[in-house]
From TrEMBL:
Protein name: Possible alpha/beta hydrolase superfamily
Native source species: Prochlorococcus marinus (strain MIT 9211)
Signal peptide: none
Keyword Magnesium appears in the UniProt entry: no
Record has Hydrolase as a keyword: yes
Residue ranges constituting the AB hydrolase-1 domain according to the UniProt record: 32-292
């Protein structure tokens, strides 16, 4: 199925939207782009076509985002109901791994931004030799995970159980989502994520806003904000036997550059760190020329 240059792949009774550039290029590998929270495959608007000139380049909407299915969220402890979905890193990673096996059908290099980086790392574990490398762009450090709770102030540690109980309430997460899912709020978040202000345009705001208007959009939010104990990038990389390259916007307000530098100096599989000066959480869209040049070089060297 094709719609506006996008295709639909059916996975576990869910629809997964995807695109490809450079499909006619004869290479023995491909690249697969994995977006972050609240984004979609369209967030690679300034990268995919260029990468597709070097090798086949795929992008995908994770379940809950973009044009993919947005099923009802099942939290830990909930009773199962028909067509529900556990929004977690393992399920998203299996989505990526099975898409690669069923649709791409050749070894891949995974490229992930934000939570897409954690998903790429876990998918690489699942795929084993079918994954040739991972490129992390401002990978989510997940500082609020239970396993990092000891790093939080004492007050935050004490109120954590209350916060968890509250955010499980669907009425609360739905109202939080409703307040966030408007163009003015989205622009304010983007102004933090893109500190230079470059490329914050109507296309970008609409790309993020449009999927939030679909019937099931609040369910992905409900599922995501209730992820308190899941994979950390550092844990995944410690057991990964393939190359990982980092690209990092230096001025990211959420994912600290200092932690990225620590990863680069202390984790064996990390072979490079490219810092994009002045860029924030999404340097691939804020400073695409610099990021594209680095991506092309990494991919060329890897193959």
């Amino acid at each position: 199925m094709t719609k506006a240059n996008s295709h639909i792949w059916e996975w576990n009774d869910l629809n997964v939207s995807w695109k490809v550039e450079g499909s006619k290029i004869e290479k023995n590998f491909a690249t697969l782009l994995v977006h972050g929270f609240g984004a979609s495959k369209e967030h690679w608007r300034q990268n995919q076509k260029i990468l597709g000139e070097q090798s086949p380049c795929y992008s995908i909407d994770l379940i809950g985002f973009g044009s993919s299915s947005q099923p009802r969220a099942k939290l830990d402890g909930d009773l199962s109901s028909q067509n529900d979905f556990s929004y977690n890193f393992d399920n998203w990673s299996h989505q990526i791994a099975e898409f690669s096996q069923s649709v791409i059908k050749k070894p891949v290099i995974l490229i992930g931004n934000s939570i897409g980086g954690v998903i790429a790392l876990r998918a690489a574990q699942i795929m084993k030799s079918s994954c040739k490398g991972v490129i992390l762009i401002n990978c989510a450090q997940r500082t609020m995970d239970d396993k990092r709770l000891y790093e939080q102030p004492k007050f935050m540690r004490h109120i954590r159980p209350l916060l968890k109980a509250l955010i499980r309430k669907r009425w609360l997460s739905k109202n939080l989502f409703k307040n966030a899912a408007n163009p003015k709020f989205i622009r304010k978040v983007l102004e933090k994520a893109y500190p230079s202000g470059a490329n914050i345009d109507t296309e970008l705001i609409n790309m993020i806003h449009s999927p939030t208007q679909r019937e099931g959009a609040s369910e992905a939010f409900h599922g995501f904000v209730n992820i308190f104990n899941d994979y950390l990038a550092t844990e995944l990389m410690e057991n990964l036997d393939l190359p990982v390259d980092l690209i990092w916007g230096e001025s990211d307000p959420w994912e600290a550059i200092d932690e990225a530098r620590y990863w680069a100096s202390s984790i064996n599989c990390v072979r490079s760190l490219e810092v994009i000066n002045g860029a924030g959480h999404c340097p691939h869209d804020e400073c695409p020329e610099k990021v594209n040049n680095r991506l092309l070089k990494i991919i060329q060297d890897a193959t």
